[in-house]
Amino acid sequence: MDNNELKKERIALFKDTIQRNDPKRIAHFGNLFSWKVLDAGYTLTEALYDYDVMENVIRDTASKYKVDVIYEFGWRNPLQAIESLGNKTYLIDDKTFTLNIDDQCLMEEEEYDELISNPKKYLWEKLIPRKHRYLKDKNGTEAFCVFLKKYGEMGEYLGKATRIMEEDYGLASFFPQVVAFDAFGNGLELLFNSLRGIRGLSLDIRRFPDKVEAAIEALNETFVKPRLEKAKKVMGKGSSPDTCVDFNPVFFSHTIFNNKQFERFYWPYMKMIADYLEEYDKLCYIFAEGDSSRFYEFYQEFPKNRIVLHVEQDDIFEAKKKLPNLTIAGGMPTTLLGKGTPDQCVAYVKKLIDKLAYDKNYIFSEDKMISFPYDCQPENLKAVCDYLYAFRY
């Protein structure tokens, strides 16, 4: 089988699993984040500031581990582009091999009305200059030109990395690039990640929930709904034959909500996406950070054979029982990959297969983003990948 055929087989694995169409084996979603940089012998600084180094990291990972998808291949941390505008959000420590992000609160609480009235005007005139301080300098135009150059270089690298994974290693592309950035921009996540921050939004939903709700709606009307309409026109109906899924929305801010707050602030957006998936015959992969088990009553309303829920801290065996309409993904503990033996890890894979894959509706993955040195031992990951790749239903 050549690499193009292998890529197609891997894409089919995901689609057949989600749609319950008798997949040949269990798909492996490679949840490998910054750890792969260390495993390839580099520091975070070396990899994140040099696309040639990151290419070497991708080749090293693809050649050693038989995953079907390398989910993160350099798009998650666009340091070169954003730092060219003076944004120092990312904090790298090569000694401890850690990468953190500041919880920035760039929007003042009294500015909600401005945001609601005209989101684009507010973001361009207030938010962006605060976030990217070089734009306020007398050489702001020069800084913006540098940013465009860096942004273009990043785009070139991502395109090249995609070709390498597909053509040289037969890996599957996960979701269409035409909607890649659109998936990260719903109104609530913008408030949570870019405007008010974790602390700010946590207070806002209790002190003035009406303004939060209005801001979410204004942002969605300005950005999300037009992008969704664009996706409908560009992608049409039916799942893309070139990618595993069609949509991969972020799911971060739910961690601060109780059920009533989730129903008010988040569920309308999720319901909009669910309706789109069903009407346009699309497939979706949701990575739910933290524990989201308290929201299962909502997830039970999702259409069947459309959505994958990747659980991070939930009891995955309980999720399988309570959410028969969804494909469950995850399950391999990073604690075991980091501290166990190859035999112990393979034994756990067998348990996951027995308890979760009995109906061929399970996607294997590491429960958390493998990011830190003690998240995984190379020999453990290799043993897991080799066993899973050889397994057949």
TrEMBL record:
SUPFAM superfamilies: UROD/MetE-like. Pfam families: URO-D. It comes from the Bacteria. InterPro entries: UROD/MetE-like_sf (IPR038071), Uroporphyrinogen_deCOase (IPR000257). Residues 246-387 form the Uroporphyrinogen decarboxylase (URO-D) domain. Transmembrane segments: none annotated. It comes from Eubacterium limosum. This is Uroporphyrinogen decarboxylase family protein.
